[in-house]
């Protein structure tokens, strides 16, 4: 496993397991299998509707709390100072945890950004109270981050954004790094939208004796992005973890970078 250091010194595993769109009836088994395969970083969110089951899997695993890195996020409907504090407490209860390693604002409220700033104040309190070891945001643009900087006493430590070979997020990723913000990339293989069939990626995979998915995940890590692929396929879960025994060359990284189409694969925007 490789780790990235957040601005406050907290270490975050660069590879985690995502729980998005895994049914409540399936997620406990998926998390248990991921834990057995060596995953210790889990990306969760209230809106995923499965935090209770994820919490049960943590409890049953017998793994020490300090050996896990758990992220959750406050959903749009819960934004605001008091409502965020309440939502956070509910997430802790659902996950059966005493603290989170990372808590994020899931989306900026573009119609009422003041509500988002109030939400950030709540995250600062959660952090000051020691209930989250780190705080950050998700899906924030450079301008939105600057608005948070202007009022924050604690700057976001993470920005979780869509990132894959067809949307490489060069400018935003660079801005985050320059401001001490660790980049996280969701949909790291783009839900498989043509990316795994891409000729360039397949040629690189053949050269390393790896799968296209493993090459894309290695590219993410080699370019400084924390990632958390998710799968209900046990073979894929194991294979996704097997990316730390090779590195891409500088030319291979450039070749994947060149595939950028600035293309969202999750939503139109």
From TrEMBL:
InterPro entries according to UniProt: AKR (IPR020471), Aldo/ket_reductase_CS (IPR018170), NAD(P)_OxRdtase_dom_sf (IPR036812), NADP_OxRdtase_dom (IPR023210)
Protein's UniProt keywords contain NADP: yes
Pfam families cross-referenced by the UniProt entry: Aldo_ket_red
Residue span(s) of domain NADP-dependent oxidoreductase: 15-260
Annotated family: Belongs to the aldo/keto reductase family.
Organism the protein comes from: Lapidilactobacillus gannanensis
Protein name (Swiss-Prot/TrEMBL): Aldo/keto reductase
SUPFAM superfamilies linked to this entry: NAD(P)-linked oxidoreductase
Keywords: NADP, Oxidoreductase
